[in-house]
């Protein structure tokens, strides 16, 4: 890991006891969907869905499934398990049907972690700005939350902790690039339509997402290629990108830094063929 760019993320949140509990269990046919809650900080509890295939005969590979952004702050984990939103985003459920244990938490500011009065307003810039004045970043918190979810996941008896993957679309695709650089337990990661580097983001139609603002990052000469290049040699990355998607700009250059590229025609989508390729990639590298 490149210690230089990591230091720009600021201090890391402290680990606390998970104090996990299961609050719901639902039979979904080929898998069971549990709703769990665990701690990521002294006063911060995170809700997540965990999908466990019924066909398991021993510890299985597991995948962290990160939800998209889409300006839908009232929606998070529920979309990736198929309870709400677009059916093309239900990849946590689809992976469970294919034999993977999956976890889908709410990212900070989304669904049950959105603390705005209407539960749907953008609180991400508040979460960012209040950290920046303390010399912290929202990205460090988000990556800490991902690692804590993986802590919970690998502690479960159904999970083989040596076979952990990551999958995300859009916002989730961005996190799919950062997470393997700060949590080396991730052996394979798929970033779909979320790979635009910082150097291509300073345009009116793109800009930066609050969660990825790191002061001084490009001034120090860094970009996403440096993040990808810092992965352990054993970590596999698939960059899934489309031809008419602003968030897929720079995909080929980023893949050249250490990933496999799957290029498609289309806009900001995660179609069935794209998902099938992503699932096969994860199955191959988590076998």
Automatic annotation (TrEMBL):
Pfam annotation, one family: Peptidase_S9
Domain Peptidase S9 prolyl oligopeptidase catalytic: 141-203
The organism's place on the tree of life at top rank: Bacteria
Family: Belongs to the AB hydrolase superfamily.
Protein name listed in UniProt: Prolyl oligopeptidase family serine peptidase
Originating organism: Paractinoplanes bogorensis
């Amino acid at each position: 890991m490149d210690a230089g760019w990591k230091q720009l993320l600021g201090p890391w949140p402290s680990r606390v006891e998970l104090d996990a509990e299961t609050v719901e269990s639902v039979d979904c046919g080929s898998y069971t969907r549990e709703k769990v809650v665990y701690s990521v900080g002294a006063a911060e509890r995170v809700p997540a869905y965990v999908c466990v295939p019924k066909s398991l005969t021993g510890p299985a590979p597991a995948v962290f499934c990160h939800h998209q952004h889409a300006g839908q702050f009232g929606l998070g984990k529920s979309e990736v398990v198929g309870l709400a939103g677009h059916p093309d985003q239900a990849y946590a459920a689809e992976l469970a049907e294919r034999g993977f244990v999956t976890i889908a938490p709410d990212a900070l500011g989304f669904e049950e972690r959105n603390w705005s009065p209407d539960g749907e307003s953008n609180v991400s810039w508040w979460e960012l700005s209040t950290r920046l004045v303390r010399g912290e970043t929202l990205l460090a918190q988000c990556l800490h939350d991902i690692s804590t979810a993986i802590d919970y996941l690998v502690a479960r008896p159904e999970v083989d902790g040596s076979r952990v993957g990551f999958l995300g679309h859009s916002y989730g695709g961005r996190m799919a690039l950062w997470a393997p650089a700060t949590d080396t337990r991730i052996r394979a990661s798929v970033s779909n339509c979320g790979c635009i580097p910082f150097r291509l983001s300073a345009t009116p139609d793109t800009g930066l997402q609050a969660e990825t603002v790191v002061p001084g990052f490009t001034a120090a000469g860094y970009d996403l290629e440096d993040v990808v290049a810092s992965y352990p040699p054993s970590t596999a990355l698939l960059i899934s990108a489309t031809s008419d998607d602003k968030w897929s700009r720079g995909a080929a250059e980023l893949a050249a830094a250490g990933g496999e590229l799957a290029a498609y025609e289309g806009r900001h989508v995660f179609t069935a063929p794209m998902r099938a390729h992503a699932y096969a990639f994860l199955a191959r590298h988590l076998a």
